[in-house]
Design a protein that fits this description.
- This protein is α/β, with parallel strands linked by helices.
- Among the domains are: 13-73, no CATH class; 117-246, no CATH class; 521-690, Leucine-rich repeat, LRR (right-handed beta-alpha superhelix) (Alpha-Beta Horseshoe), CATH 3.80.10.
- 22% of the residues lie in helices and 15% in strands.
- The protein is built from 16 helices and 26 strands.
- The strands form five sheets. It has an eleven-stranded parallel sheet with strand order 14-15-16-17-18-19-21-23-24-25-26, with no helix packed on it.
- Helix 2 (41-48) links the parallel strand 1 and strand 2 (59-64).
- Helix 6 (125-134) runs parallel beside helix 8 (164-171) and helix 10 (195-205) crosses helix 11 (216-229).
- The chain is globular and about 80 Å long.
């Protein structure tokens, strides 16, 4: 099947249809249109024109819940009405999601009650799954009977057609989960949201009940996972890692949000925001005067949240918007994607603000008055590409828990005194300054950091003593660590460089590590210790002085290894596979699946020991721009599926025995033909013999 997918940058319908027609002409295609609601005949006639150019046998599969959509789209009789689930299928689905063991003493009684509950769901799978999740692992007959006898079943259907079963599922949610679920009514229908971001919003609104020994982030994660388990949220089928609400669930959240939540969809809507409105989200330009009139009466606003995916052409040159909003009670403020260069000084009037999002803006400077927001928990500055400095008094934001500067690559250094922000849970990056007050020592007091941390400008670390004070080995919650030096610079003492990296040894819980621009000739021993049993990804770039690779072969869980731009490396030998100081040696690289070497101008020899049994799970091997490399590759790679040899002209040898190899790219001297006998049904072979 030919892949004709490509991005579409056109906005004119005629241009789009012309290009689509060209793509589909004399092609056989299958187009899937899911959950269609539009039933206007003229729109469909125009929409379908390009698809008439395809071959006979092309298909359009359309799903809809509106009865007359099918007849508008097609005059054929190929219409299939999907009935509701049968009672038997509903019972099976219900019991699966309730997770009641068949060995339970109460199983037979609960099964009978479950049948009656399922009957009330009227064959709707979402309702069955949700109620099953509501009773998950509950084996008390009383809980099941209370749900069955609930009076909320008898309430009339509301205008949004929210089925009774879903109302029941909401009714039996714990009150803390109810508030968190209803808050999601601020999202538009089909909106894809990020788990961590939503938890930060819940935190800012005070929706999480404190629990001893648990951080707010942990509590929010538990809430979120519970709502997923009960089918209130579900994973997006479009973007990995994002979540959505089924539109019936969205209707449910909107129904219970009542007058306190408001979504502004378009400026043509004359409806004004009510005085009771506390939480507002918008997908339009809030600087527009018509919008200003709409929200003028909402003087007790808690949330002002941008949920628009695209950029907004807004310039805040004065205090007008902030003053007009009268946002003195505001807790959440999002100017994400605004075209703004600075914040007004009046930002310090928002003394209750917990969450401020300036991501993807063109902001140049941040007012020092921002540091008077003593209750601020979350400050998002990701991809503010013009921002060069953070406010000098950042240390005053003593309640700050989340500081995100990912993609803001113009930042020069961190402000002084970051060690005073002892509640920081997430710090995306720390840029080492030249002074003691903003040097690497400041990281030493930040033991509660979680997730990913990038430490850059490590060339400003003067000696190993400074590096030791960062206390990297005590940061047990850091799972991803990036260590970056300036890529080009003055000549350095290679011994000092090694000593500094030695003292930056991370905690053993680390999962991913990247080393960029390291200046030593050899790596410290900790890098290959088998005690790093959680480490799955390792990348090393631009280590130009390096003469020897670390002993990585005994890292038990390492799956992806990337090595690039080691200008001084000439030989990879036995030290790569085994640590000479370890008495217990296992199969080298026993878990490795991806191995990449790139831009190694002096690498001439890859030594493979006799009877080598390493790389048993290697699926992808790539060697790019290694112009003087000679000799053999590993002889036997039983799991290898993809092999790339590019711009490595001296490497001419037989292919490894790789029975699963199906993608081969060779740009350089032709491999010996004997190697091809090991290829089993190759799907893609590209060989350029120049």
């Amino acid at each position: 099947m030919e892949d004709i997918a490509s991005p579409c940058n056109k906005v004119n319908l005629n241009s789009i249809q012309t290009e689509l027609k060209e793509k589909l002409t004399e092609k056989t295609f299958l187009v899937v249109l899911d959950d269609v609601w539009d039933n206007q005949q003229n729109l469909w006639d125009n929409f379908l024109k390009p698809f008439l150019s395809g071959n006979k046998g092309s298909k359009i599969l359309l799903t809809t819940r509106i009865k007359n959509v099918d007849s508008v789209v097609s005059t054929t009789n190929l219409h299939y009405k999907l009935d509701t689930l049968s009672n038997e299928d509903c019972r099976s689905l219900f019991l699966k999601h309730s997770s009641i063991s068949t060995s339970s003493r109460q199983y037979e009684i609960l099964e009978q009650i479950g049948k009656k509950i399922v009957e009330k769901c009227k064959g709707l799978p979402l309702a069955v799954k949700t109620l099953g999740g509501l009773l998950r692992s509950k084996d008390k007959v009383e809980d099941w009977e209370n749900l069955l006898r609930s009076e909320i079943w008898e309430l009339p259907e509301d205008e949004s057609k929210i089925v009774a079963a879903l109302r029941v599922s909401y009714h039996y949610l714990p009150s803390n989960l109810k508030r968190c679920f209803v808050y999601c009514s601020l999202y538009p229908q089909d909106y894809q949201f990020d788990k961590d971001e939503l938890i930060l919003l819940w935190m800012a609104e005070g929706l999480l009940q404190p629990m001893e020994k648990y951080t707010s982030e942990n509590i929010g994660c538990a809430y979120f996972d519970e709502l997923v388990a009960r089918s209130f949220f579900q994973l997006s089928s479009k973007d990995v890692g994002l979540f959505v609400m089924h539109d019936l669930m969205h209707d449910l959240a909107t129904f219970f949000a009542e007058k306190f939540y408001f979504r502004v969809r378009e400026l043509g809507d004359p409806q004004k925001i009510r005085s009771k409105t506390r939480h507002l989200s918008y997908m339009v330009n809030p600087d527009d005067s018509r919008f200003g009139e709409a929200y003028k009466g909402a003087i007790h606003m808690r949330t002002f949240l941008n949920v628009c995916r695209g950029p907004l052409s807004i310039t805040l040159e004065s205090d007008s918007l902030l003053l007009q909003l009268q946002m003195r009670y505001l807790r959440v403020l999002s100017f994400k994607r605004f075209s703004i260069e600075s914040l007004p000084d009046s930002i310090d009037k928002l003394i209750h603000l917990h969450y401020l999002d300036l991501s993807f803006t063109s902001i140049l400077t941040l007012s020092e008055s921002l540091c008077k927001l003593y209750n601020l928990q979350t400050l998002k500055l990701s991809y503010c590409k013009k921002l060069e400095m953070l406010p000098s008094r950042m240390q005053d934001l003593v309640k700050l828990r989340h500081l995100d500067t990912r993609g803001s690559n113009s930042l020069k250094e961190m402000p002084k005194g970051m060690s005073k922000l002892k509640h920081l849970n997430f710090l995306s990056g720390y840029i080492v300054g030249e002074q003691v007050e903003n040097g690497i020592r400041e990281l030493g007091a930040l033991d509660n950091l979680h997730g990913k941390l990038c430490i850059s400008k490590l060339q400003n670390v003067k000696d190993s003593g400074e590096a030791l004070e960062a206390k990297m080995d005590s940061k047990e919650h850091i799972s991803i660590l990036e260590l970056k030096w300036r890529r080009e610079g003055d000549t350095v003492d290679v011994e000092t460089a090694r000593d500094i990296l030695e003292e930056l040894q991370p905690h053993r819980n680390l999962k991913e590590l990247s080393i960029d621009g390291y200046r030593g000739e050899i790596f410290p021993d900790w890098l290959g210790l088998s005690c790093y049993s959680n480490l799955t990804e390792l990348s090393m770039y631009l280590c130009k002085n390096c003469r020897q690779l670390p002993s990585l072969g005994q890292l038990p869980s390492l799956k992806d290894l990337r090595i690039s731009e080691f200008d001084g490396l000439e030989r990879i030998g036995g030290e790569f596979y085994n640590n000479a100081e370890s008495s217990h040696q296992g199969t080298p690289f026993r878990s490795l699946q991806t191995l990449e070497f790139a831009h190694m101008p002096r690498w001439r020899e890859w030594h493979i020991p006799d009877d080598f049994d390493g790389f048993p799970k290697l699926k992808s091997l790539s060697i790019v721009n290694c112009p003087v490399l000679r000799g053999d590759l590993p002889a036997h790679l039983p799991a290898l599926e993809k092999l790339n040899i590019v711009d490595s002209d001296e490497l001419a040898c037989s292919l490894p025995r790789a029975p699963k190899l199906h993608q081969l790219l060779v740009m350089g001297p032709l491999y010996e033909s004997e190697g091809y006998k090991h290829l089993s049904k190759p799907h893609e072979v590209v060989i350029c013999n120049e």
